[in-house]
C-alpha cells in the first residue's frame, strides 16, 4: 500500500468524538486520517443536534421575551412577527459556520479527510466507499467514533412528514398547530419549548412519572410547573400506543391508568432516545460483537476486543453527550500515544437547555440513597439572589449534596437561568475533590447568579447567609 494511504491513526466518524480525536492525534505527532460519510464534518452534534437546537432555543427565547416579558421593561414591541424562514436561515448559518470551522481545523492540523463510508476490512485495514470510487487505507490504530442515530418506535414509524425525529423537528418550515412530543427528556423538552414559543399547542407524553427523569424529583417537579406556564402540557405515566387517522386528522393513541387517551396532532416528534450507529461498519469482518443495546463494548483505554481497534462516544456505553465523547477522544488518543489520558465519569455535567435551564453533575439524592451513602443537602433559591431579582431569574434553586462524613461534594443540581454555565464551577470543585465548605468559602463576584452556588454550599452546613 502506498505510504499516502498509510496512517498511524484512522478515525471513522467526524462528530465531537471523532474530530477531537483526530486533532489530538495530530497534536501528538500521529499521521491521522478521518472518514465522514455525510457532506459536512461535525457529526450529529454540529449538524442536527446540540448546535441547531441551541440556535433555535436562543432565537425563540428572544421572540418569547419580546412577546411576553419586554413590556414590563418599558420596551414596546407591538406588531411583533416572526419569519420561520429567516429563523431557520439563521440556524443554518450557525451550523455552517461551525462545520466549516471543523473543516478548517482538519486542514490546519494536517489531518487527511476522506469523504465516504468507512468500513473495517480486516486487520489494520479500512475501506472508504466514496461517491465514485473506493480507497483502501491502512492504519496502525483505528478509532470507531460513528455515534448514534434516532430511535424509531415499532408502532410509530418515522415518515418524515407526520411522525418525525429531531432531525426534522429542527427544520419544520412552518409552525405546527398541534405538536405531540413523545418523551420528556432533553431533546423532547428543548424542541417542545422551541415550538411552544412559536405558537404550537404542545402535548408532551411521557411513560415515566416525571419529566427530565435523570434529575432529582424537586428539580423535575419545578421544571414541570414552570414549563406548564409556558404552554407545554404534560401527560405523565402515559404510554403511547400508535397513530390513527380519523376524519382526516392524525390521532395519537395512548394509555393512562389502563384507559385509552388520544391526542390530535399535526406533527408527532418521537424523542425517546438514540441508538448506537454501526450499520455496515463491518464489525463482523474483524470479529467485534455489539452488546444487547447495539453498543460496542470497550475495555481499558477504549480498546475493543480486537487489537488496534478502539471506540468512543455515543457508540459505546455511557451517557450520549458531546462532551463525554470529546473527553473519551482525548483520553483514548493520549493512551495510544503512550500518555496517561483519563476520563472522570463521576463528574460529567448534564444539561437541558430550556428556560430555565436544568443542570446537574454527580449523584442525585436518589442515587446517593440507593448507594447507601449518608449525605447532607443544602438548597438556595434564586429568589434570594440579587442578580436573579435584577434580571428576571428568580425561578429555580441550586442544591448541593455532600457526604455526611467527609463533606465532599457528591452532586449538584441546578434549575435556573444560565444553569448550563453555573454548573461548570460545581464540576471544577468536584474534579478537585472539593467539599461543600470549600465551595461556600470560595469568593464569588457580586452580584452574580453564581453566588447561589456558594450559598447552597454554605446551606449544607446550615450557614447560608441570604436565606430566610
Ligand atoms: P456523532 O456526533 O453522532 O458523529 C458520528 C459521525 O460518524 C457522524 O457524522 C456520522 O455520519 C459518521 N459516521 C457514522 N458511521 C460512519 C461510517 N461508517 N463511515 C463514515 N462516517 C460515519 N449532547 C450534548 O452534550 N449537549 C447537547 O446540547 C446536545 N443536544 C442534542 C440535541 C439533539 C437534537 C440531538 C439529536 C443530540 C444532542 N446531543 C447533545 C447529543 C450529541 O449530539 C451526541 O452525544 C454527540 O454528537 C456524540 O458524538 P459522537 O462523536 O460520538 O457521534
TrEMBL record:
Domain FAD/NAD(P)-binding as annotated: residue spans: 7-329
Record's catalysed reaction(s): N(6)-[(R)-dihydrolipoyl]-L-lysyl-[protein] + NAD(+) = N(6)-[(R)-lipoyl]-L-lysyl-[protein] + NADH + H(+)
Classification via Pfam families: Pyr_redox_2, Pyr_redox_dim
Record keywords, A-Z: Disulfide bond, FAD, Flavoprotein, NAD, Oxidoreductase, Redox-active center
EC number(s) on file: 1.8.1.4
Residues in Pyridine nucleotide-disulphide oxidoreductase dimerisation domain copies: 348-456
PROSITE patterns, sorted: PYRIDINE_REDOX_1
Cofactor remark: Binds 1 FAD per subunit.
Gene Ontology terms, MF aspect: dihydrolipoyl dehydrogenase (NADH) activity
Known cofactor(s): FAD
Family to which this protein belongs: Belongs to the class-I pyridine nucleotide-disulfide oxidoreductase family.
Miscellaneous note of the record: The active site is a redox-active disulfide bond.
Name of the protein in its database record: Dihydrolipoyl dehydrogenase
Organism of this sequence: Thalassobacterium maritimum
The encoding gene: lpdA
Amino acid at each position: 500500500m502506498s505510504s499516502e494511504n498509510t496512517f498511524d491513526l484512522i478515525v471513522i466518524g467526524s462528530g465531537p468524538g471523532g474530530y477531537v480525536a483526530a486533532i489530538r492525534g495530530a497534536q501528538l505527532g500521529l499521521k491521522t486520517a478521518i472518514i465522514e460519510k455525510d457532506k459536512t464534518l461535525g457529526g450529529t452534534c454540529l449538524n442536527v443536534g446540540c448546535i441547531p437546537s441551541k440556535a433555535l432555543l436562543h432565537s425563540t427565547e428572544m421572540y418569547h421575551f419580546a412577546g411576553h416579558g419586554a413590556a414590563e421593561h418599558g420596551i414596546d414591541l407591538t406588531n411583533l412577527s416572526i419569519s420561520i424562514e429567516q429563523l431557520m436561515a439563521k440556524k443554518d448559518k450557525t451550523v455552517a459556520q461551525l462545520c466549516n470551522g471543523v473543516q478548517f481545523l482538519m486542514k490546519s492540523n494536517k489531518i487527511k479527510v476522506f469523504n465516504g463510508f468507512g468500513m473495517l476490512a480486516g486487520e489494520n485495514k479500512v475501506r472508504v466507499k466514496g461517491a465514485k470510487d473506493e480507497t483502501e487505507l491502512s492504519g496502525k490504530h483505528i478509532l470507531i467514533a460513528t455515534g448514534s442515530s434516532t430511535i424509531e418506535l415499532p408502532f410509530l414509524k418515522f415518515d418524515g412528514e407526520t411522525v418525525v425525529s429531531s432531525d426534522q423537528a429542527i427544520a419544520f418550515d412552518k409552525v405546527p398547530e398541534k405538536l405531540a412530543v413523545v418523551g420528556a427528556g432533553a431533546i423532547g423538552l428543548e424542541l417542545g419549548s422551541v415550538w411552544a414559543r412559536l405558537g404550537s399547542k404542545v402535548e408532551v407524553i411521557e411513560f415515566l412519572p416525571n419529566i427530565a427523569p435523570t434529575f432529582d424529583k424537586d428539580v423535575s417537579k419545578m421544571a414541570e410547573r414552570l414549563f406548564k406556564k409556558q404552554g407545554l402540557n404534560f401527560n405523565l405515566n402515559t404510554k403511547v400506543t400508535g397513530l390513527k387517522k380519523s376524519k382526516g386528522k392524525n390521532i395519537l393513541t395512548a394509555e393512562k391508568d389502563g384507559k385509552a387517551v388520544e391526542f390530535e396532532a399535526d406533527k408527532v416528534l418521537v424523542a425517546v432516545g438514540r441508538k448506537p450507529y454501526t450499520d455496515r461498519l463491518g464489525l463482523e469482518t474483524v470479529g467485534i460483537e455489539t452488546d444487547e443495546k447495539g453498543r460496542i463494548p470497550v475495555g481499558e483505554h477504549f480498546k475493543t476486543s480486537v487489537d488496534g481497534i478502539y471506540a468512543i462516544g455515543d457508540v459505546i456505553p455511557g451517557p450520549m453527550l458531546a462532551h463525554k465523547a470529546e473527553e473519551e477522544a482525548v483520553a483514548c488518543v493520549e493512551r495510544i500515544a503512550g500518555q496517561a489520558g483519563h476520563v472522570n465519569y463521576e463528574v460529567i455535567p448534564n444539561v437541558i437547555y430550556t428556560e430555565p435551564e436544568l443542570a446537574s453533575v454527580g449523584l442525585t439524592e436518589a442515587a446517593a440513597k440507593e448507594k447507601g451513602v449518608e449525605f447532607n443537602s443544602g438548597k438556595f433559591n434564586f429568589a434570594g439572589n440579587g442578580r436573579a431579582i435584577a434580571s428576571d431569574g428568580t425561578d429555580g434553586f441550586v442544591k448541593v449534596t455532600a457526604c455526611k462524613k467527609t463533606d465532599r461534594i457528591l452532586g449538584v443540581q441546578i434549575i435556573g437561568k444560565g444553569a448550563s454555565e453555573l454548573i461548570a464551577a460545581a464540576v471544577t470543585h468536584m474534579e478537585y475533590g472539593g467539599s461543600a465548605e470549600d465551595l461556600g468559602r470560595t469568593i464569588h463576584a457580586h452580584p452574580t447568579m453564581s453566588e447561589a452556588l456558594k450559598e447552597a454550599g454554605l446551606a449544607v452546613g446550615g450557614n447560608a447567609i441570604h436565606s430566610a
